[in-house]
Write a structure and sequence with these properties.
This protein is α+β, with helices and mostly antiparallel strands. About 10% of the residues lie in helices and about 20% in strands. The protein has a domain at about 5-135: SH3 Domains (SH3 type barrels, Roll), CATH 2.30.30.40. The radius of gyration is 54 Å and the shape is rod-shaped.
Length: about 230
Amino acid sequence: MLKWCGRLLPGVFLAASAWAMTPAAAFAQGAFTTQAVNMRAGPDRGFPLVAWFPAGTPVNVIGCIDGWRWCDVVTRWERGWVYARFLSVTFRNQPTTILHNGAWLGLPLITFSVGPYWGSHYRGRPWYGRQGQWSTWSPPPPVVRPPPRPPGWRPPSQPSRPPTVRPPPRPPTQGPGMGPPPQRPNPPPGQGPGTGPPPLPPPPGQGPGMGPGQPPENISRPPRGS
């Protein structure tokens, strides 16, 4: 039968006094539930339901399994396992969730075995005789995560980096046939491209258009018969 743990039942004060004298109570860490949660008979959702707690219920954390995912908690009337995401501890004057912060909070790691645990806390429960269904349970492998950071932790300020000095750009790569055109010598004065040396002057008595043996046109010929 599921119990609602918002009120005390007959015999609670006697049970609470007996628990207060146990060694577990001396090392318990005070915490509270962050929302309505279920208490299970083992550190897994597949275990039977023990009780239900509203948000803000004070509990004492005995310890947690590897990874601080599930924690063994005690109230004045029940004992069982609660998922660590729904448990919070006051650390440095601010609430801190146990999940991922259990190491910083100093919560111890404990183990779980169905037979001894149920024999100490759940005799007389309707599902006590069916504990063989969970006797082969084993915790999942721990998830490897970086060490958790304490609440309020901030990364140290990084010094300003000097400006990056980049090398000057390189000229474009010159391939075959690339590069500046070859330098050609300048022609002599008066001689351009496609021209040869200046012609020599004609011999005396021979002007332009005159062949050899021809008198110049400006010399008058003697009259015939003279």
